[in-house]
Amino acid sequence: MSIWEYANPTRFMQTSGKLLPLVSVLSFACLIVGLVWGFFFTPDDYRQGSTVKIIYLHVPSALMAINAWMMMLVASLIWLVRRHHVSALAAKAAAPVGLAMTLIALITGAIWGEPMWGTYWAWDPRLTSFLILFLFYLGYMALWAAIENPDTAADLTSILCLVGSVFALLSRYAVNFWNQGLHQGASLSLDKEENVADVFYFPLLVSIAGFVLLFLALVLLRTRSEIRLRRASALISRERLS
Amino acid sequence: MIALLQRDLKLAIRAGGGFGLGLAFFLILVVLVPFGVGPNSDILSRIAPGILWVGALLSCLLSLDRIFQLDYEDGTLDLLATAPLPLEAAATLKALSHWLVTGLPLTLAAPLLGVLLNMPSEATLWLVASLALGTPALSMLGTFGAALTVGLKRGGLLISLLVLPLYMPTLIFGAEAVRRGTEGLPTGTALAFLAAITAGCAALLPFASAAALRMNLR
Amino acid sequence: MNFSVENLACRRGDVTVLTGVTFSVAEGEALVLRAPNGAGKTTLLRCLAGLTPPVSGALHFSPEDVAYAAHADGLKAQLSVEENLQFWADIFGTRDIAPAVDAFELSSLLSRRAQDLSAGQKRRLSLSRMVLTGRAIWALDEPTVSLDVENVARFSSAVTRHLAQGGSAVLATHIDLGLPTARTLDLSPFRAISQDAPSDDPFLDGAFQ
Fold it and tell me: Where are the coiled-coil regions (chain B) (predicted)?
């Protein structure tokens, strides 16, 4: 059996129906463990004090903000190349979740920025690129909302997602060139553990796992709703025809 | 192929609003700025290059929804899609004619409007150079946005939402080139990026635009 | 030129409206489509012109050979009749607009702007474009709308001439054009009726719960 059989709506509904409760429970477990551990059982940073603890929300949401777009890009490509409807609907379903993640990253960043840099907002390259990413999400969702025919909407938003990805990446380099910012360098990488001490690192990994699972659960849930919507409208238009 | 370009230019001149509208909007925008930030010439001369770049960008935006909409409404686009001219070529020519009607006049008018904003004279050269390199990319991205929204009744506002994020790299490198040029810093990187964006757009976007048009005509 | 379609299913928007359309048209022959409004004449013609890809079935010809005339005239109001024609002649690479002008007697209107033409004159101008395309298959959607009797005759003779030169045509029309080699195809039997309509919509899958 090939993996593409899951692209059939019926098949997808069966599988995702079983998967969804599992993913949701795992996600909540990871989030609770990660956040409680991070907030209450890690020491304060010697320079940043307790403000540093916002990383357990900030870093995972920022990661997912980018990964959600990546997932939309892959799903759009699958739709354009293989025309699997579920893929297009999954991309549509992921967009609002990605938008929310971007917003969380921006807001937690502002809250963290105030004690650290003395300002809620600075035109720092990373902040700026997340703001630009936010606008890309808005445009993508607006295009989905504006087009009536679902297949045409899927086609056009997929193309927008492809072109948008190139320009989002380009914007990232452009803002780097435009303003060397305040942000600390990547504080998390899997091979260099020198950046973050272990005490912060492990609860952070658990939070990230929680966010990844949360994203998965939300996308599954929303994709299922989208499939039901398509099913309903397909039935309605068939009724109208007879 | 030249026929489509000639026709579009002819229509832009005859239908009115083509050449004039973008330029007039650009002028008004530049006139509004001193009222907003005050008449202090130091401040104005510092922000002049940025204002002129943002102004040029917004003026480009103004006429985007007309690129395909009129042809779509009167049925010409259907006929063009069945004509021997590939839609990719049609999209390129549409972008070119949009640039000739808006981008080029804006580039030429920018130094004159710079005078209104006390723009330092050494900035003029860099402004014209960066606009000349960057505005074709704006027209091509705009054509792509217009192709995406051609089937929609009120696509005008949506185009702005789709196209403005795509405009950002061009704006950043364009305005940065002028800023660095004015301060006597090297501008090579910014101008090279600007040229690269325009070249990349010219190479790839016609395919995206044509694909979007075909999907919209289905 | 001979052409045929086989077991064609066409869609309008996301609804399949025609299924199992099979016909062939010989060189010099005209096929007149008859069907009530909304039955899918325009849908079929757009499919033949290559604008809408078929849901299923095969087209045994290249859309490159089809010249399509839609409901809309596709004229530019600000351009003169001559400029409108010259534009399409350049696009189709035929350059010479004289045959089109002669066929629809447009010579007295050449310098007039399209916005100053009457509806019937616009229609004539729009139809004369078919002559310019130099393509073998004409696909015409309600070509005679707003034409008077005299101009309907003019149009018929243009089509007849095209057929005599080895072309062929598919027309959706309600009136009898008096074409010598016309054959009528009733689209009603091909209308897609709810349950048995083939659909590539996986959301209509019966097993779906």
Answer: none
Helix orientation angle between A85-117 and A125-146, rounded to the nearest 10 degrees = 150
Q: Which residues of A fall within a CB distance of 8 Å from B146?
A: none
End-to-end CA distance of chain A: 37
Distance from CA of C194 to the nearest CA of A (A): 5
Terminal alpha carbon distance of chain B: 24
Q: In what order do the strands lie in the sheet with C137-141?
A: C66-69, C137-141, C168-172, C30-34, C182-186
Q: What is the DSSP string of A24-45?
A: HHHHHHHHHHHHHHHHHSSPPB
Distance from CA of B76 to the nearest CA of C (A): 4
Closest CA to A200 of A50, A68, A62, A85: A50
Report, in angstroms and rounded to the nearest whole number, the Rg of chain A calculated over CA atoms.
20
The whole-angstrom separation of Cα B17 and Cα B3 is 21
CA distance B103 to B19: 10
Q: Which of B169, B208, B211 sits opposite A174 (nearest CB)?
A: B169
Beta strands in chain A (DSSP E): none
Domain with B99 in it: 2-217
Q: What is the pLDDT of residue A202?
A: 85
Q: Tell me: pLDDT of A47 over 70.
A: no
Distance from CA of B133 to the nearest CA of A (A): 16
Tokens 């010219």 -> residue = B202
pLDDT tens, residue by residue, A150-176: 888 999 999 999 999 999 999 888 888
CB A34 within 8 A of CB A56: yes
Nearest-CB residue to C50 (from B15, B80, B82) = B82
C-alpha–C-alpha distance, residues B60 and B107, integer Å = 11
Q: Do the bridges between strand C15-25 and strand C3-12 make them parallel or antiparallel, or are there none, so unpaired?
A: antiparallel
pLDDT tens digits, C120-131: 889 988 988 888
Q: Is A233 helix (H, G, I), strand (E, B) or coil?
A: helix
Strand partners, C80: C113
pLDDT digits (tens, 9 = 90+) for A123-132: 888 888 899 9
Question: How many residues does the structure list for chain A?
Answer: 242
DSSP A186: P
How many domains are there within chain B? 1
What are the mean pLDDT values of chain B's consecutive 10-residue runs (218 residues total)? 84 74 90 90 89 92 87 90 91 94 92 90 91 95 94 84 93 91 86 94 94 91
Closest residue in chain C to residue B84, using alpha carbons only = C92
Distance in angstroms (rounded) separating the CA atoms of residues B87 and B68: 12
The residue extents of the domains of chain C are 3-204
Query: Is the predicted pLDDT of residue A114 greater than 50, yes or no?
Result: yes
Asked if the C-beta of C72 comes within 8 angstroms of chain B's C-beta atoms, the answer is yes
The CATH code of the domain at C3-204 is 3.40.50.300
pTM value is: 0.90
Choose among A138, A155, A170: nearest Cβ to B169: A170
How much is the ipTM here?
0.90
